[in-house]
Amino acid sequence: MTLILHGWASAYQGEFEKGIAEIQEGLEKALATGALLFEPYSLGLLADACIKNKHYDQAFEFLKQAQLRLDEEDCGRFYAAEIYRLLGEAYLRSNQNLDQAEHCLYNALEVAREQKAKSFELRICLSMCDLYELRPDAGECRSQLGQIYRTFSEGFDTFDLVRAKARLRDT
Protein backbone atom coordinates (compact mmCIF):
# COMPACT_ATOMS: atom_id res chain seq x y z
CA MET A 1 0.00 0.00 0.00
CA THR A 2 2.87 2.35 0.72
CA LEU A 3 4.18 1.98 -2.82
CA ILE A 4 0.70 2.57 -4.24
CA LEU A 5 0.12 5.72 -2.19
CA HIS A 6 3.61 7.03 -2.88
CA GLY A 7 3.02 6.49 -6.60
CA TRP A 8 -0.29 8.33 -6.46
CA ALA A 9 1.34 11.28 -4.68
CA SER A 10 4.19 11.34 -7.22
CA ALA A 11 1.77 11.29 -10.14
CA TYR A 12 -0.29 14.03 -8.53
CA GLN A 13 2.79 16.21 -8.11
CA GLY A 14 3.76 16.01 -11.76
CA GLU A 15 5.85 12.83 -11.97
CA PHE A 16 3.13 11.02 -13.88
CA GLU A 17 5.06 8.16 -15.50
CA LYS A 18 7.03 7.38 -12.33
CA GLY A 19 3.92 7.53 -10.17
CA ILE A 20 1.82 5.32 -12.43
CA ALA A 21 4.62 2.73 -12.57
CA GLU A 22 4.83 2.71 -8.74
CA ILE A 23 1.08 2.29 -8.34
CA GLN A 24 1.04 -0.57 -10.84
CA GLU A 25 4.02 -2.23 -9.16
CA GLY A 26 2.38 -1.93 -5.76
CA LEU A 27 -0.88 -3.30 -7.12
CA GLU A 28 0.90 -6.29 -8.70
CA LYS A 29 2.66 -7.04 -5.41
CA ALA A 30 -0.59 -6.79 -3.46
CA LEU A 31 -2.43 -9.05 -5.89
CA ALA A 32 0.41 -11.60 -5.74
CA THR A 33 -0.32 -11.98 -2.03
CA GLY A 34 -4.02 -12.45 -2.69
CA ALA A 35 -4.95 -9.02 -1.31
CA LEU A 36 -7.93 -8.32 -3.55
CA LEU A 37 -9.84 -6.03 -1.18
CA PHE A 38 -7.95 -2.88 -2.17
CA GLU A 39 -7.82 -3.53 -5.91
CA PRO A 40 -10.71 -1.15 -6.80
CA TYR A 41 -9.17 1.47 -4.50
CA SER A 42 -5.78 1.14 -6.20
CA LEU A 43 -7.36 1.24 -9.65
CA GLY A 44 -9.24 4.35 -8.54
CA LEU A 45 -5.97 6.00 -7.52
CA LEU A 46 -4.53 5.12 -10.94
CA ALA A 47 -7.57 6.68 -12.62
CA ASP A 48 -7.44 9.74 -10.38
CA ALA A 49 -3.79 10.35 -11.32
CA CYS A 50 -4.66 9.91 -15.00
CA ILE A 51 -7.54 12.40 -14.79
CA LYS A 52 -5.33 14.92 -12.99
CA ASN A 53 -2.75 14.57 -15.78
CA LYS A 54 -5.34 14.57 -18.61
CA HIS A 55 -4.75 10.95 -19.63
CA TYR A 56 -8.45 10.23 -19.96
CA ASP A 57 -8.26 7.07 -22.07
CA GLN A 58 -6.07 5.42 -19.43
CA ALA A 59 -8.42 6.63 -16.70
CA PHE A 60 -11.39 5.01 -18.45
CA GLU A 61 -9.46 1.73 -18.72
CA PHE A 62 -8.57 1.66 -15.01
CA LEU A 63 -12.12 2.58 -14.03
CA LYS A 64 -13.55 -0.14 -16.25
CA GLN A 65 -11.33 -2.66 -14.45
CA ALA A 66 -12.41 -1.28 -11.08
CA GLN A 67 -16.09 -1.54 -12.01
CA LEU A 68 -15.63 -5.17 -13.00
CA ARG A 69 -14.03 -5.88 -9.61
CA LEU A 70 -16.84 -4.10 -7.75
CA ASP A 71 -19.29 -6.61 -9.21
CA GLU A 72 -17.37 -9.57 -7.81
CA GLU A 73 -18.42 -11.13 -4.53
CA ASP A 74 -15.02 -11.10 -2.80
CA CYS A 75 -14.53 -7.38 -3.35
CA GLY A 76 -15.09 -4.73 -0.74
CA ARG A 77 -17.37 -1.98 -2.05
CA PHE A 78 -16.15 0.73 0.32
CA TYR A 79 -14.69 2.70 -2.62
CA ALA A 80 -17.60 2.18 -5.04
CA ALA A 81 -18.95 5.73 -4.73
CA GLU A 82 -15.54 7.17 -5.53
CA ILE A 83 -15.10 4.87 -8.54
CA TYR A 84 -18.41 6.14 -9.98
CA ARG A 85 -17.48 9.75 -9.16
CA LEU A 86 -14.13 9.34 -10.90
CA LEU A 87 -15.90 7.90 -13.92
CA GLY A 88 -18.16 10.97 -13.95
CA GLU A 89 -15.10 13.21 -13.61
CA ALA A 90 -13.39 11.46 -16.53
CA TYR A 91 -16.43 12.09 -18.73
CA LEU A 92 -16.71 15.67 -17.50
CA ARG A 93 -13.03 16.62 -17.81
CA SER A 94 -12.61 14.95 -21.20
CA ASN A 95 -15.81 16.65 -22.46
CA GLN A 96 -16.79 13.31 -23.98
CA ASN A 97 -20.33 12.94 -22.73
CA LEU A 98 -21.83 15.25 -20.13
CA ASP A 99 -25.02 13.18 -19.91
CA GLN A 100 -22.92 10.13 -19.03
CA ALA A 101 -20.97 12.22 -16.52
CA GLU A 102 -24.24 13.17 -14.84
CA HIS A 103 -25.44 9.56 -14.83
CA CYS A 104 -22.21 8.37 -13.18
CA LEU A 105 -22.33 11.13 -10.58
CA TYR A 106 -25.91 10.27 -9.67
CA ASN A 107 -24.90 6.60 -9.30
CA ALA A 108 -22.03 7.71 -7.07
CA LEU A 109 -24.35 9.84 -4.96
CA GLU A 110 -26.79 6.96 -4.53
CA VAL A 111 -24.01 4.63 -3.34
CA ALA A 112 -22.53 7.24 -1.00
CA ARG A 113 -25.91 7.91 0.60
CA GLU A 114 -26.63 4.20 0.87
CA GLN A 115 -23.30 3.72 2.68
CA LYS A 116 -23.73 6.94 4.70
CA ALA A 117 -20.34 8.06 3.37
CA LYS A 118 -20.59 11.81 4.00
CA SER A 119 -17.08 12.66 2.76
CA PHE A 120 -17.73 10.90 -0.54
CA GLU A 121 -21.13 12.55 -0.77
CA LEU A 122 -19.51 15.97 -0.34
CA ARG A 123 -16.91 15.23 -3.01
CA ILE A 124 -19.61 14.01 -5.40
CA CYS A 125 -21.65 17.17 -4.83
CA LEU A 126 -18.56 19.23 -5.67
CA SER A 127 -18.14 17.28 -8.91
CA MET A 128 -21.83 17.80 -9.70
CA CYS A 129 -21.41 21.54 -9.18
CA ASP A 130 -18.50 21.49 -11.64
CA LEU A 131 -20.77 19.74 -14.14
CA TYR A 132 -23.73 22.03 -13.55
CA GLU A 133 -21.60 25.12 -14.04
CA LEU A 134 -21.88 24.06 -17.70
CA ARG A 135 -25.66 23.71 -17.39
CA PRO A 136 -28.55 25.77 -15.99
CA ASP A 137 -29.08 23.53 -12.90
CA ALA A 138 -26.32 25.14 -10.77
CA GLY A 139 -28.73 26.39 -8.09
CA GLU A 140 -30.02 22.92 -7.21
CA CYS A 141 -26.48 21.62 -6.96
CA ARG A 142 -25.43 24.37 -4.56
CA SER A 143 -28.46 23.63 -2.42
CA GLN A 144 -27.43 19.97 -2.13
CA LEU A 145 -23.84 21.01 -1.44
CA GLY A 146 -25.02 23.34 1.34
CA GLN A 147 -27.10 20.58 2.91
CA ILE A 148 -24.23 18.11 3.04
CA TYR A 149 -21.74 20.79 4.12
CA ARG A 150 -23.88 21.65 7.15
CA THR A 151 -23.75 18.02 8.36
CA PHE A 152 -20.02 18.33 9.11
CA SER A 153 -18.90 19.41 12.56
CA GLU A 154 -15.13 19.14 12.14
CA GLY A 155 -12.37 18.88 9.56
CA PHE A 156 -13.09 22.24 8.02
CA ASP A 157 -9.47 22.62 6.91
CA THR A 158 -9.63 19.54 4.68
CA PHE A 159 -9.41 20.10 0.93
CA ASP A 160 -13.00 19.14 0.08
CA LEU A 161 -14.58 21.18 2.89
CA VAL A 162 -12.44 24.21 2.00
CA ARG A 163 -13.57 23.86 -1.62
CA ALA A 164 -17.21 23.45 -0.58
CA LYS A 165 -17.09 26.54 1.64
CA ALA A 166 -15.58 28.59 -1.20
CA ARG A 167 -18.18 27.30 -3.66
CA LEU A 168 -21.00 28.16 -1.26
CA ARG A 169 -19.55 31.60 -0.54
CA ASP A 170 -19.48 32.37 -4.27
CA THR A 171 -23.25 31.86 -4.56
Spell out the blueprint of helices and strands:
Layout: H1 2-12, H2 16-32, H3 39-52, H4 56-70, H5 80-93, H6 98-115, H7 118-132, H8 138-149, H9 159-169
Helix pairs in contact: 1-2, 1-3, 2-3, 3-4, 3-5, 4-5, 5-6, 5-7, 6-7, 7-8, 7-9, 8-9
Please summarize what this structure is.
With 171 residues, this protein is mainly α.
Largest sheet: none
Strand content: under 5%
Mean pLDDT: 90
Number of strands: 0
What does this 3D model show about the protein?
It contains 9 helices and no strands. The chain starts with a helix and ends with a helix. The longest helix has 18 residues, at 98-115. It is mainly alpha-helical and 171 residues long. It has 2 domains: 1-76, Serine Threonine Protein Phosphatase 5, Tetratricopeptide repeat, CATH 1.25.40; 80-171.
Overview features:
171 residues; Serine Threonine Protein Phosphatase 5, Tetratricopeptide repeat; 9 helices; globular
